[in-house]
Amino acid sequence: MASPKFEKKQFSRNSSVGKGLALIYKFTLMVTKLSHATLYVTDQNKALDFYSKTLGFKVHTDATMESGFRWLAVTPPDQPDLHITLLSPLNEFMYKDEDVRAAFKLLLDKGALGAGVFYTPDCRATYEELKAKGVVFRGEPKEQFYGIEAILTDGCGNWFSMTQPKQI
Amino acid sequence: MNISLVLYRKIVAGKIYMDQNLHDPINLQHISRNACISRFHFHRLFTRVYKRTPHQYLTKKRIRLACELLSEEKLSVTEICNSVGFASMGSFSTLFKKEMGIGPSMYRHHAITRRQEEIKKPTSFIPHCFIDGFTQI
């Protein structure tokens, strides 16, 4: 009967089998990370102001095509390879169908589109700073079982959780 | 140890003071005075909250501002160095290269070339699924 020690040794990273498996793993994985994520916003100029000036994100690309479609991508300070594209679905250059635009407008006005979670190393400090800059929060930071959280809006139809994860 | 709300506000006041006075030669004494807290106390709490020292934060912020100015082509590299609060061109270049991996002049060259490309061929910066998908609905 093989002992657990023997099993572990057989597949350790330093062994030739382990190295072989790591190589296969490296070349067979097709998707390894998220590079672009879209956030729908009611106003791209306002969103640019919020994400770059208030949150401190870097503007990666701001290009307008001949058709009028504007590609606006920002990257968080510690994730330079994650492009968050701020697109306006209310713009006819993006969606020609009026019903689609109206549906998006309703969802954005109600704040019903799921947005995301921002990481912060210190929720209370960031809350005080953003509040001083005029950002609207749903309330003060609260202790949750997963960390300290405050809910904020970008003023363009999206609500985010800003969380300082609990240290384990 | 938890930090009280009053102290949080003082640390944030110091950070906002740094953000608003990047262009001037400010030091820890100016910042802590503005935050109404001792230098030692401010340094310790700031480092604890933001996981970097006030000096590291200020340098990074200045380099970032320099990057924006370098992309705009309005000021010379020396003017940018002075306007973002660096005392000498030598320290600016060294710190810039350490942070960005390339020197200020090279960064400007890359940024301007990229911006021209964005204007000339905007579609080359957009994944095709976006162009094809959205314009058909």
3D architecture notes:
The complex is a heterodimer of chains A (168) and B (137). The two termini of chain A are 37 Å apart. A four-stranded mixed β-sheet of chain A has the order 1-4-3-2, covered by helices on one side. A four-stranded mixed β-sheet of chain A has the order 5-8-7-6, with helices on one face. Chain A is built from five helices and eight strands. Chain A is globular and about 60 Å long. The relative contact order of chain A is 0.14. In chain A, 32% of the residues lie in helices and 26% in strands. Chain A has a single domain (36-165), classed as 2,3-Dihydroxybiphenyl 1,2-Dioxygenase, domain 1. Chain B has a single domain, classed as Orthogonal Bundle (Arc Repressor Mutant, subunit A), CATH 1.10.10.60. Helix content of chain B is 71%, strand content 0%. Chain B is built from eight helices and no strands. In chain B, helix 1 crosses helix 2 (28-34). The N and C termini of chain B lie far apart (55 Å). The interface between A and B is medium-sized, with 26 and 24 residues.
CATH topology description of chain A: 2,3-Dihydroxybiphenyl 1,2-Dioxygenase, domain 1
Give the CATH H-level superfamily of chain A.
2,3-Dihydroxybiphenyl 1,2-Dioxygenase, domain 1
CATH topology name of chain B, in short, is Arc Repressor Mutant, subunit A
- Overall 3D form of chain B: globular
Strand content of chain A: 25-35%
CATH architecture annotation name of chain A: Roll
What is the domain tally of chain B? 1
User: What is the overall number of helices of chain B?
Assistant: 8
